[in-house]
Write a structure and sequence with these properties.
- This protein is an all-alpha fold.
- The model has no long low-confidence stretch (mean pLDDT 92).
Length: 91
């Protein structure tokens, strides 16, 4: 009978250690999940910013393309560019 009690106590202790270990692992995995979800949100924000930047650059390129092709405009020669300054300001 004592032998059976010792075996049952050993099984109970092993089961309790397994439960503690499983809960600890679950907490670690949950923390990792939260970290990765926060990272995913940050990447979503960055993706949106990059999409906005791309659309801005495409708009600039589109304006340049229309000016060049439809309006036959070109960048002037640097010798023909004059910079005017407001009265009372220094360059």
């Amino acid at each position: 009978m004592v032998k059976l009690n010792l075996i049952l106590v050993a099984v109970l202790v092993a089961g309790a250690l397994f439960v503690v270990s499983a809960r600890h692992q679950a907490r670690k995995l949950f923390m990792a999940l939260q970290t990765e979800q926060a990272r995913a949100r940050a990447l979503d924000v960055e993706w949106g910013q990059l999409q906005l930047e791309i659309s801005t650059w495409l708009m600039h390129n589109r304006v340049e393309e229309v000016a060049r092709d439809r309006l036959k405009m070109a960048v002037p020669d640097p010798k023909r560019i004059y910079v005017l300054h407001a009265q009372g300001t220094q360059p």
